[in-house]
Amino acid sequence: MAKELKELTNKDDSYSQWYNDLVVKAGLAENSAVRGCMVIKPYGYAIWEKMQRALDQMFKDTGHENAYFPLFIPKSFFSKEAHHVEGFAKECAVVTHYRLKNDPEGKGVIVDPAAKLEEELIVRPTSETIIWNTYKNWIQSYRDLPILCNQWANVVRWEMRTRLFLRTAEFLWQEGHTAHETKEEALAEAKKMIGVYKDFVEGWMGVPVIVGHKSENERFAGAEDTLTIEALMQDGKALQSGTSHFLGQNFAKAFDVQFANREGKLDYVWATSWGVSTRLMGALIMAHSDNNGLVLPPKLAPIQVVMIPIYKGLEELAQVKARLEGIAAELRKRGISVKIDDRDNVRSGFKFAEYELKGVPVRLAMGPRDMANGTIELVRRDTLEKETVPQEGIVDRVEKLMGDIQQNIFDKALRFRDSMITRVDTYDEFKRVLDEKGGFILAHWDGTVETEVAIKDETKATIRCIPFDAPEEEGVCIYSGKPSHRRVLFARNY
Q1: Which domain, by its residues, includes 174?
Q2: 166 with 262, same domain?
Q3: Of the candidates 55, 331, 337, 492, which lies 20 to 30 Å from 401 by C-alpha distance?
């Protein structure tokens, strides 16, 4: 493990390589035999499961139910909503045949040309089209509304340049799809769900976010409004961490989903969709981790406490382990996950480094001397502070530490994020801050797509959002000099 840590690139030397090294060496994920697709390893998947479990409960607490819809979508469905197909056309994987056969020349297997599909199928990049085609059969009257469905699934978006968790051809996510009687209900739903995402990312992941509206150019394809939560990584780049879309009646009209309203007249249904993905794993890693490895908030750590017995010989091991097991049993009663690592084929120093690399929040170590003195060594991963404390009261101390570490991780990320928000009033200052400091930039924008695209082409910075709390403020656009009524949030991003 010392070798593993030695080979972990220093994040100040190459943040990108540090991230890639950490994902692989901490056992979170690895590249697969399929280009652009990843294998999520058990430790990484255990973190995703905790995310999934928490979010799933939050969805159910807000009245949503889980369902499942097909992986394959008829190509014709995409032609029904013009903006939607335009937004996803270049990323679609297409199924054209349904059978293989042995090559007559003995060169393995080939696609059977006789097995061509009458209509090609798209491997789902997102499910609005197949779901709204289904909803047409479910909705006849206002009494059938609202429909509040969520789907946990995989999707495929054919990416050419991929990075583990952040951008892969196949990834895991959830996608909520809701149908409503009125525009007001749908707007409220979209806002409610971006609030759920904010609560999760800040409360569970310990990552502060800024909530706002996407610009028209950055909206989800087919949406009338996209709400987003934007997080800042330690290298000063932004990461879109969740989105919620007000779809208006666009998909209802595309798939002719009408209902008899309370006046007995036909009306089109109002819609939302919203989602987060395994990209959140990337946010978790990049927002908190350091050159010793992962730093995980206790709420999402697969192992919250690791215990390492220090011993010589089986007799000492038995004594120390028995005491550790007693403490572990009490911790588990309080809902804290514990692992006792009594492997005899690696040294304790190796174990210390391994669990630092894996981001385990609390490490406890005990040897015969601690047994005699009634003490135990305690190390917290977020600060790497080490202290020798009494065994008496250790369960209460560790339980309190779970909350302290969770809060400290968030507070540290918040201080960093706030220190990386800069207000600028000129384009020269904008470019200088981008290059020398990075982070979020609050600047005036004239509201035009032309200006937004020009800034992106020249600087690679995009409008991350128009913050909910952006006050009315008269000014002039940093690029065009035209009037502007509020500042928007710019950043370079993943």
Answers
A1: 2-73+137-288
A2: yes
A3: 55
